[in-house]
Amino acid sequence: MASYRNGRGTVKVDRAQPTGSSNLRASSSFKSKNSIVRRSNSSAGFDDSVSGRVRVAVRLRPQNAEEMVADADFADCVELQPEFKRLKLRKNNWDSDTYEFDEVLTESASQKRVYEVVAKPVVESVLDGYNGTVMAYGQTGTGKTFTLGRLGDEDTSARGIMVRAMEDILANISRDSDSVMISYLQLYMETIQDLLNPSK
């Protein structure tokens, strides 16, 4: 039995493993044996030593032809600073808000880069036996389907996160001892749809 301390008290973890079980890691919210984990007080507020926390990335999609014609000033209101992992939104000529993220992906970021930065660590964690979730959030037309669900039939470099994740999972499992079940659900206007069986 090992004790770990976090900001809310002491947690005891029984390290004994049942016979035949894999060697599971302690909860990812703890750094190491007998250590105290402290949240970073940096301006970004992120602590990369805590591997199990929710990470947030932002991806800016390129303007489409209609947007280029309708609003020539659009490019001036959003400024990406990927080297600082920041996005700046200009309200007007003298006022702006800055937001910090774990990753900032420009409109030229490839689908492969997005997968490797955003989803591959989650897939690797799932293959280690942990639950993982990748969620895309944004308004209609912001590129969620392109980022997640693009099949890349004509151009394999356009494949989205779901296809790439499935490829990695299938490449790293044993056909003799592992099984994979897939469900493909959509939550739209407070209605859940099974996209593999739309009648449900």
Automatic annotation (TrEMBL):
GO terms for biological process: microtubule-based movement; mitotic spindle assembly; spindle elongation. PROSITE patterns: KINESIN_MOTOR_2 (PS50067). ATP binds at G138, Q139, T140, G141, T142, G143, K144, T145. Gene3D superfamilies: Kinesin motor domain. Belongs to the TRAFAC class myosin-kinesin ATPase superfamily. Kinesin family. This is Kinesin motor domain-containing protein. Keywords: ATP-binding, Cytoplasm, Cytoskeleton, Motor protein, Nucleotide-binding. It comes from Lactuca virosa. GO terms for molecular function: ATP binding; microtubule binding; plus-end-directed microtubule motor activity. It is found in: Cytoplasm, Cytoskeleton. Residues 18-30 have a biased composition (Polar residues). GO terms for cellular component: mitotic spindle; spindle microtubule. Residues 53-200 form the Kinesin motor domain. The lineage of its organism: Eukaryota, Viridiplantae, Streptophyta, Embryophyta, Tracheophyta. Residues 1-30 are annotated as: Disordered. Its main location: cytoplasm. It comes from the Eukaryota.
